[in-house]
# Entry
Amino acid sequence: MNNDEEDDTCRIYKILLLGDSSVGKSCLLLRYCDDTFQDVHLATIGLDFRLKTIYLENNKRVKAQIWDTAGQDRFRAITKNYYRGAHGILLIFDITDKSSFEHVRNWIEQIKEEASEKIIIYLVGNKIDNKSNRVIANEEAVKLAEEFGLKYTETSAKTNENVEPTFLNLIKDIDSIYGDKDNENYGTTIGGIKKGKKKCCL
# Structure
């Protein structure tokens, strides 16, 4: 099979990184895609994205189109346009920043308004390398995730702790739903509420 044929059969999954400014969205993207980390990182202006090829079980090849979104309020209108066609979201907060955790509910409300009801969402507590400044306990984050029917995981872009497994598990969950072109079961919704089936946009 040549590369063109491979591209024709390769599923592309759109993933959004959401959360307040400075929670580490760009750092997580760079760590996962380039295995690099920058202590000082300029705020994302609007949106940026990377494309990464992943090999799943049985050497199945998929591509993740990962969108890094700006967290500042003034860019929210731009960000909202990119919910369309998204298959998964990493909703990220900083475990050392209480306000970023408190704003998770606001982000979930926006997701409900703009994204497919069937989108897969992981709640991610980032910067776990900074244990001395932690203000959000694991138990508190797990409780919030359970309230909305989300999976919860913790990461450190700085030390690379749990970064690849977080992205990979989300992609596997997406592929389990969207991997079969004839499969219209779109899985778990926010709060576990399911509505009518829809065709996905790839």
